[in-house]
Amino acid sequence: MNYQAMTKAVTDAIKGEINTVNKWKTAGAQVCEFFGTETALNEVKAQFIADAIIPALKPAHQKALGMELARKGSKEYNALDDEQKDIWYAFNQAKKDARSTAHTMFSRVVSYAFPKEKTETETETKSTKTKIVNLINDAIGKAEKDTAPDYDAVLLIQQLRAALATASK
User: Fold this and answer.
1) Domains: count for the chain
2) How far is CA 21 from the centre of its chain?
3) pTM over 0.85
4) SS3 state at 101
5) Of 82, 91, 102, 151, which sits 20 to 30 A from 128 (CA to CA)?
6) CA pair distance 145, 123, nearest whole angstrom
7) What interhelical angle do 128-145 and 153-168 show, nearest 10?
8) What is the DSSP letter of 147?
9) Residue 89 domain-assigned (yes or no)
C-alpha cells in the first residue's frame, strides 16, 4: 500500500455521496493498513488533511484555506477600515467553516479506519423491571413539579405510586 493510493481512496470517498459506505470502508481499510494505528495517523494529521482531504473539499473551502489573513489585533489588522474589517470577518468565517469541514472528514476517516469497540451501555444492562421503576419515578417527579396541571395530579401521583409498589415487588 503506497501513500498516493491511500490518499486517492480517501479523496474519492469524500468526493462521493456522503452515503457511499463502500468507498468509506475501502478508504478506512487502506488508511488502517498504511498507518497501523490511530495514534500514527493523528501524529501526521495536518499533512494527511493537506494531502487527502483538502483536495476533495469544495473549491470555496480550498480557496478559503489558501487565503492569508492578517492576525486579529496585529498592526495590519488594526490598519483596516470598518468595511475591510467586515470583509476580513467574512473571510475568517469561511476559513473556520473550511477547517471544521476538514476536521469532520478527518474524524470520519478515523472512524472507518479504526472503529471503536462497541460496549454495552448502561441502559442495555438494566433489567426491564429497573427501567420500569425508573420511568415511574421520573413520572412521579414530573407530576409533583407540574405547577399548573390540566389533570388530577393527586390522583395520578397516587396511581403512579401504586404502580411503583407493584413494579418494585
Assistant:
1) 2
2) 17
3) no
4) helix
5) 151
6) 25
7) 160
8) S
9) yes
